[in-house]
Amino acid sequence: MFCRTAGGELTTEALAADRALLSRTSTAERVAAILRTRIIEGYFPPGTRLAEDAIGSALGVSRNTLREAFRLLSHERLLTHELNRGMFVRTLTVEDLVDLYRVRRFVECGVIRTVTGPHPGLDAVAAAVADGEEALSSREWQALGTANIKFHQALVALAGSPRSDELMSGILAELRLVFHVMADPRRFHEPYLARNRQILEQLQRGDGPGAAEALDVYLRDAENQLVQAFADREAEEGA
């Protein structure tokens, strides 16, 4: 078992279902993409040890392929190797948090500011908002956090840039690791759901500049909450 999910535990059997995403000519990049997605979805929280044998068996890949995937994810600052202990999901610092939000404001606000009319990509933004509302009604807090991340992925996807999408995938995977600092995920994510819908509606009206201004305030509010959560945790650990 790897970590707790909304409905129980993620087992090697659940990860084995991802094997269908790999072909006979699977690459370390595909393995890394699967593990990155699992991190974004919250299945591997900070500090989780990634057991080579279990994961390699679940995905049906060689140890060398898996180690190369781990190397790629380490380069993305998602994993860290501890001598004589193995590979672990990285625990981020408050400095990491501040830098992530700096990049997010630059990228996300820059993209949506350009939306001044109908855009086919808004269907994905609307779907992410709907997923969040469904998760809220079902009281599935991990799913609510995942829907929020998909909302921001969909915003950046409006640029139609594979490079921006790749950049945002890594940023949001790191961000999911930051979210674990919040003791109450519902309290953190729920208020932003209404703000997601507001931004969606502004974009649907073609008011990209207004949506960008709202998102800038939104991201600064979220950053301040998370910085305070880091401070609270440090105070508790030092008590």
TrEMBL record:
Residues forming coiled coils: none
Source species, domain of life: Bacteria
Keyword ATP-binding: no
GO molecular function, one term: DNA-binding transcription factor activity
CDD domains in alphabetical order: WHTH_GntR (cd07377)
InterPro entries in alphabetical order: GntR_C, TF_FadR/GntR_C, Tscrpt_reg_HTH_GntR, WH-like_DNA-bd_sf, WH_DNA-bd_sf
Every HTH gntR-type domain range: 25-92
UniProt keyword list: DNA-binding, Transcription, Transcription regulation
Entries under PANTHER family matching the protein: GNTR FAMILY REGULATORY PROTEIN, TRANSCRIPTIONAL REGULATOR, GNTR FAMILY
Protein name: GntR family transcriptional regulator
Taxonomic source organism: Pseudonocardia hierapolitana
Lineage start: Bacteria, Bacillati, Actinomycetota, Actinomycetes, Pseudonocardiales
